[in-house]
Specification:
- This protein is an all-alpha fold and about 120 residues long.
- It is built from five helices and no strands.
- The radius of gyration is 14 Å and the shape is globular.
- About 25% of the residues are buried.
């Protein structure tokens, strides 16, 4: 069940077209770009990526963003699209975890769990 939460939370980032990770800081802005930056900031909260890690994570996210089913804001995805999104996101997360150090991995997993829990809370 824990992996499912990680998948759902990361799916939100990828669904928004996130292809750039910002380990520190993050942009404001409106709409998708601002949300994308906030999601990336949450995913990598308390993690400092090296330049090499950042490049690898950016590449991973770009690769998997092209595999995602189309996302229409305000319209719930079909069950098939939801399943596809979860499968793609799990593969993406597995690749991201492979880039992280042993110390970074539990922090990333904790962040993903917190993001999944935020999505389940009423009013969040």
């Amino acid at each position: 069940m824990r992996k499912f939460g990680l998948v759902v939370a990361a799916a939100a980032l990828v669904a928004l077209g996130g292809t750039e990770v910002q380990a520190q800081g993050g942009g404001g802005g409106r709409g998708g770009a601002g949300m994308q930056a906030r999601m990336a900031e949450m995913m990598f909260k308390d993690i400092t990526l090296s330049a090499d890690q950042k490049t690898k994570v950016d590449s991973i996210q770009a690769k998997y963003a092209t595999m995602m089913p189309a996302f229409t804001p305000g319209s719930p995805p079909s069950e098939a699209d939801r399943t596809k999104r979860q499968e793609v996101t799990k593969k993406q997360n597995d690749e991201i975890l492979a880039v992280l150090t042993a110390e970074q991995k539990p922090v990333f997993e904790k962040n993903m769990t917190e993001m999944a829990n935020m999505r389940r809370r009423p009013g969040a």
